Amino acid sequence: METVWHILWHSLLDSLKLLPFLFLTYLLMELLEHKAGERIERAITRGGRVGPFVGGVLGLLPQCGFSTAAAGLFAGRVVTVGTLLAVFLSTSDEMLAIFIGAAMPARIIFTVLGIKLAVAVLFGFLADLLFAKWGQIGQVSDLCEREGCHCEQGVWRSALRHTVKIFLFVLLVNLLLGAVLELVGAERLAAAMNGVPVLGVAASALVGLIPNCAASVAVASLYTKGLISAGAMLAGLLTGAGAGLLVLFRTNRRLRDNLAFALALFLIGALVGTLIDLTGLGAWLGL
């Protein structure tokens, strides 16, 4: 019974952390669509050229909600695919808290953050260059129509309706994932990641894709205990975007694009992690 309450409590806390981000995201989108009009959307479009850099920097902030906001904004075509990718790659969720709590040297923490930012910005700009049409901005109304936002009731009530719907969906998934992670345990995760080096990195990247803040906690904790390599740690933290992927799949109607995005995220994380381990770059950087 205690385990059940533990899962319920932590799932609720993880979900509640996202509420302000979700509400502010949908409020912004409602204002863009119904109050500010084309003038502000054009300004955001121009700012989208440097979006991957801005997204990469903001993603480094120690929280697990900005990725959900970026996913919602992308679904409404307010930000580009490169900006969303940069946010997801740089998002650290609970990594900083775990590293600081484990008394990791500041040099290591800043090195990890620097690598995540560099990877996020590089692949973010590359994505915008290669997939310009996919990242096209200016279709906020599409999301409003799909979600049945009842905009005639006012932007505040409409934003609240969006927020509640996504929150309940996230809470349900968090409950399911919490139960699975509680049954699997950290030691089994470590065993799955510590076999063949390349497979270990890939396994860590897959763990990072779990749409829950617990994924970054698991990866960061295993690294602080010396149970996984620097490459595996970076692979898991690069793909770990909290509930961002979950919100993307819930709000973006094109399933094929969502799957392609998740695959790209996994491949980037696995590639960087493998290079870090096989080239000895991790040891050279002191990781």
Report a brief summary of the structure.
The chain has about 290 residues and is an all-alpha fold.
Number of helices: 17
Radius of gyration: 19 Å
Taking the alpha carbons of the first and last residues, their distance comes to 40 Å
Specify the structural class. Answer: mainly alpha
- Regarding quaternary structure, how should these chains be classified? single chain
Strand segment tally: 0
Relative helix content:
over 70%
Sequence stretches where pLDDT stays below 50 over 5 or more residues: 135-147
Strand content: under 5%
The gross shape turns out to be globular
Biggest sheet layout: none
Q: What is the average per-residue confidence, as pLDDT, rounded to a whole number?
A: 75
Secondary-structure element string:
HHHHHHHHHHHHHHHHH
Give structural attributes:
287 residues; 77% helix
Provide the fold topology:
Layout: H1 2-16, H2 19-36, H3 38-47, H4 51-59, H5 66-75, H6 81-90, H7 95-101, H8 106-130, H9 140-147, H10 155-184, H11 186-193, H12 197-208, H13 213-224, H14 230-239, H15 244-251, H16 255-278, H17 281-284
Helix pairs in contact: 1-10, 2-5, 2-10, 4-6, 4-8, 5-6, 5-15, 6-8, 10-15, 12-14, 12-16, 13-14, 14-16
